[in-house]
Specification:
2 helices; about 190 residues; UDP N-Acetylglucosamine Acyltransferase, domain 1; 7-stranded mixed sheet; 5-stranded parallel sheet; single chain; about 20% helix; alpha/beta
Length: about 190
């Protein structure tokens, strides 16, 4: 793609070729396959963390990721002591950031991709992404879905099975579809 800078110089943006994209996707699939062959013991979790770091993820000290999930790229960064349970799915159209001591239950889905509304011939238009942020101490219950652009506040709890469509305040419990505040928690 060509861009014209203020000096009228022509700048070429580097976009990965289709072949490079396909090779990267094969690498992502391979890393996930290796990751999911491993068990959930201490050593396997350490090896899984190293494998996922090969994709570009930045996992801070003490972060544990259990198997069975799918990490679609490397735009994950975690704080200290995070715990990500089995069978979670991470879509990385945009970045996902965890603070310290975040706990993620089984089967949680993080979706950063969204489509613009297209014409009647194809309603799912151009894809864009919005980041997800989960702040310190938050706990996300099993089988929850977190949608693009959402922030989960410090110390918040997302009840199992919730679909989070809007940002969550600190120190509250939310649940339901769509998630709504159930109760306030002590700070």
């Amino acid at each position: 793609m060509l861009n014209s800078a203020s000096t009228n110089a022509v700048v070429y943006e580097q976009k990965p070729s289709l072949m490079n994209r396909q090779v990267y996707l094969i690498f992502v699939h391979f890393i996930n396959l290796l990751s999911n062959i491993l068990g959930n013991d201490f050593l396997s979790c350490k090896i899984r963390g190293r494998l996922i770091s090969l994709l570009g993820a930045k996992l801070d000290q003490g972060t544990i990721i259990k198997g069975g999930g799918y990490i679609y790229g490397g735009k994950l960064s975690t704080g200290v002591g995070c715990h990500i349970n089995r069978d979670c799915y991470f879509d990385f159209t945009a970045r996902i950031t965890f603070g310290n001591h975040v706990v993620v239950g089984h089967g949680v889905t993080f979706i950063t991709a969204e489509h613009q509304i297209g014409s009647s011939q194809k309603r799912a238009g151009q894809v864009s992404g919005r980041s997800i942020v989960v702040e310190d101490g938050a706990w996300i219950g099993a089988n929850t879905t977190i949608l693009p652009g959402v922030s989960i506040g410090k110390g918040a709890i997302v009840a199992a099975g919730a679909v989070v469509t809007q940002s969550v305040l600190p120190n509250v419990t939310v649940g339901g579809i769509p998630a709504k505040i159930i109760k306030a928690l002590e700070a």
